[in-house]
Recover the amino acids of this structure.
């Protein structure tokens, strides 16, 4: 018995080593690219080509950030490695924030109202309607995107914040589904007591359901914000105008306009780093919530 | 005694019917305007010839007929299917591996947060990041390869490697996230079952095949079906890195639809292509559900 036990332990010792090595490898593969992006954003133009593998360039500079934020005038920017395009990621970051925060607030609010109706209220065709909501999760995004573009164009909302926000502003099937699942699991005692006391639906929703769902709503808000912040194709289609571009669209256009032979890597990596900051901030603040929501909802 | 509360309940239910509508209204408007109507309008538009100006002219099934013989369309479909095959199997295996390693080594939520980072970031950023790392001239990977005296590898600029490279980028982006779903599934396996197998002297391989895989089957089925659907819709990474090239090596179906719809303004043709994609995806999902449910019964 003790023999087999020590054999098992020996084996686990070796296995453990291998497992830890694999874990370290995974961390390296995950994190190294981000380090490299940041490192490149600090590398002066000439050193990008002469010190391509240095862990840190011999000279470091923040000018790429100044350049892509439009803080440095054009002639000087070209000298520093710019291609002469006018870039102002500061404005694009602001646009991304406006769109993402707007969508997050309204989508979570209206979806929670719908989820309340689906989870708690009785009305005709309830199950059918809910099934219809959920079934659209299966449709590839482009099927709706083409007609939605036409619709937004007909409403004269091209190149407006509202146009970019419109399709996800009032709901997404996922948001309603997510909150309904959560509400189904809440104890009904409190609301039933409130109903018996003669409270109306509005009071029950605001004063009982919302506080009980605050956690789930916060999680959904984080997911919605990240999805909207990351979105590329839709804002590209409806918001190409320079003043309205979100950060992902601006980064994409910046990349496409970059000259073939001499890409502005420093500028691109500075822009990429800026685009990561909000996500990393959210991860630091709400990391546990995000991580746990993946176990809970299973998707998205 | 029993009647009063029941009556009261029914009364409150009637009130609820009207109230429910108020609560549903904003989401119903959004759902109708941006999900149901466009889906139906898409079907209609796919039967027309329309360049966004004037009125759509009804052409029946002409667009579908043209698509069926359009080599560019079928080529982009083929490229997409190839991409899915480069992407999904490796991604799923890696995710399963990561989940199993995590299960043994660490359950820390900091670690889980870290491996989730690539998935949380914008596709555009991930694409730019890898475009830079894989650059043939000064990217860090090829510079290192060259310093070892080897020729640079044309990851995104050769017809053979471009598609697998893009699959690699997306595997990198999705494997941590997928691993977390599988990991959550692993936590659902009853401890007693694993312990019993250990006491019986089952080898790790046997435990993996006989216990872990069968328990994980529903989770894996979910993961595979949803990631296949997502994989068919690859766009951002390609649009940023290769734009369909070299030649047509990465010209995926979303690029085809995007080009026809938003660059050539062939709305009817583009929507028809999107409908065919939808039908193909339905078929693929249905087939997968059949296959995976069938094999589920062995446990």
């Amino acid at each position: 018995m003790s023999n087999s036990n020590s054999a098992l332990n020996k084996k686990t010792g070796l296995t453990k080593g291998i497992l830890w090595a694999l874990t370290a490898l995974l961390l390296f593969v995950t994190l190294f690219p981000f380090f490299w992006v940041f490192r490149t954003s600090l590398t002066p133009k000439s050193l990008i080509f002469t010190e391509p593998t240095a862990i840190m360039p011999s000279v470091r500079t923040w000018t790429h950030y100044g350049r892509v934020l439009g803080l440095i005038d054009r002639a000087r920017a070209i000298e520093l490695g710019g291609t002469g395009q006018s870039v102002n990621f500061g404005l694009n970051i602001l646009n991304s924030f406006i769109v993402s925060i707007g969508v997050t607030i309204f989508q979570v609010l209206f979806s929670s109202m719908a989820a309340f109706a689906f989870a708690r209220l009785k009305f005709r065709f309830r199950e059918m309607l809910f099934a219809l909501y959920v079934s659209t999760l299966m449709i590839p995004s482009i099927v709706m995107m083409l007609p939605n573009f036409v619709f937004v164009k007909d409403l004269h909302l091209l190149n407006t914040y509202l146009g970019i926000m419109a399709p996800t502003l009032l709901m997404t099937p996922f948001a309603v589904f997510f909150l309904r699942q959560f509400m189904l699991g809440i104890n009904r005692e409190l609301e039933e007591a409130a109903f018996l006391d003669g409270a109306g639906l509005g009071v029950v929703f605001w004063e009982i359901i919302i506080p009980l769902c605050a956690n789930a709503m916060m999680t959904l808000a984080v997911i919605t914000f990240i999805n909207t912040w990351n979105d590329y194709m839709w804002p590209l289609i409806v918001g190409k105008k320079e003043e309205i571009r979100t950060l992902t669209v601006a980064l994409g256009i910046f990349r496409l306009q970059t000259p073939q032979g001499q890409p502005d890597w420093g500028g691109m990596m500075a822009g990429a780093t800026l685009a990561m900051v909000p996500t990393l901030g959210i991860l630091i603040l709400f990391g546990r919530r995000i991580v746990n929501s993946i176990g809970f909802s299973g998707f998205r | 005694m029993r009647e009063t509360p029941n009556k009261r309940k029914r009364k409150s239910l009637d009130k609820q019917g009207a109230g429910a509508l108020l609560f549903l209204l904003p989401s119903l408007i959004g759902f109708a305007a941006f999900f149901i109507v466009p889906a139906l309008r898409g079907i209609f538009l796919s039967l027309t010839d329309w360049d966004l100006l004037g009125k759509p002219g009804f052409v029946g099934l002409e667009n579908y007929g043209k698509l069926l013989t359009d080599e560019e369309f079928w080529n982009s479909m083929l490229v997409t299917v190839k991409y899915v095959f480069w992407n999904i199997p490796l991604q799923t295996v890696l995710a399963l591996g990561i989940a199993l390693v995590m299960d043994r080594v660490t359950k820390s939520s900091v670690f889980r947060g870290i491996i989730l980072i690539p998935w949380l970031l914008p596709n555009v950023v991930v694409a730019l990041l890898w475009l830079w790392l894989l650059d043939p001239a000064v990217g860090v990977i090829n510079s290192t390869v060259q310093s070892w005296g080897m020729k640079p590898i044309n990851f995104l600029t050769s017809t053979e490697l471009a598609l697998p490279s893009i699959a690699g980028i997306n595997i990198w982006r999705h494997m941590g996230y997928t691993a977390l779903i599988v990991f959550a599934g692993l936590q659902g396996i009853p401890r007693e079952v694993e312990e019993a197998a250990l006491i019986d002297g089952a080898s790790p391989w046997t435990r993996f095949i006989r216990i872990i895989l069968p328990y994980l089957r529903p989770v894996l089925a979910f993961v595979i079906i949803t990631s296949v659907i997502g994989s068919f819709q690859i766009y951002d990474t390609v649009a940023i890195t290769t734009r369909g090239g070299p030649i047509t090596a990465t010209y995926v179906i979303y690029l085809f639809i995007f080009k026809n719809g938003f660059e050539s303004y062939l709305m009817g043709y583009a929507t028809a292509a999107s409908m065919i994609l939808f039908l193909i995806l339905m078929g693929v999902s249905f087939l997968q559900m059949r296959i995976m449910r069938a094999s589920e019964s062995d446990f």
Q: What stands out?
A: The first helix of chain A runs from residue 2 to 41. Residues 2-60 of chain A form one domain.
